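Following up on my earlier thread - several people asked me to post the actual chain instead of describing it. Fair enough. Here it is, all 278 residues.
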Amino acid sequence: MNRKELNPDSSPQAAFGARVRRLREERGWTQEELGDRTGYSSTHISSVETGRKLATLRLSRRADLAFGISESADTFEREWREIKHGSLLEGFPEFLGHEGRAAEIRLYEVGVIPGLLQTPEYATVLVDSVVKRGAITTDQAHERIALVAERQAALVRKSPPLVFAMLDESCILRPVGGRAIMEAQLTRLLEFAELPNTVVQVVPFALGERRPFSLPLYILTMPDRSLMSYAESAQRGQLERESTSVLPLLTAYHQMQAVAPSQAASVDMINQLRKGTL
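Reply from S.P.:
Thanks for posting it. Predicted structure:
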């Protein structure tokens, strides 16, 4: 049997494949056995191990289960996301894997509608502006648009998460893409607020110094009730799993919810803005 020597340093894809082979051989499994455990052919496993193919998200998750590393910090899913979305901020690809499995999602956004609530047209305008600045390529822009759809699909899974969305007033007042796109985006917010598993609140400028956050923040409650947070600056993202660090953020989030207008008042504000009467 011919065995291809691997060079993990040649590319991230090659490193992914080499790690699959290493973990498989450590357990004494053949490619056929790993294929049986993941639902793929031995030929496909071989293509991934030798770097000829990049594993899919589905295979990455099944490999994590097969190797018993789904709950570790170094999953194949995390590695896959870093390869697939390498243009994203540090920490964000790993966060996405947790977001897709969270039981509760609490988010606070400033300046733009958050990705989970964006229409495709709104998302496209934002990404196109980044391409024009030369910060990302057109291919990376397409990946980001696909990522928005992937994240939103997780919200309509069989057991959808509870989603609490706190939007700084700047999110709905900042014009993006012209009147038609903004009107459709505001309509999308109203539809989102009507879902049985969502709460939408607008944090008005009048809240002033009582607003505890100045940067975007996500707080996830996982199925086992563990907590994690993800915060962004202009240059990097930070994923935090230590409950001692996350609990104060959760407390501040609840305090902000308590002083912000209710969902009913927020929906009325968004509706007036959509109609041009605000």
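Residues 24 and 34 are 7 Å apart (CA to CA). That should answer part of your original question.
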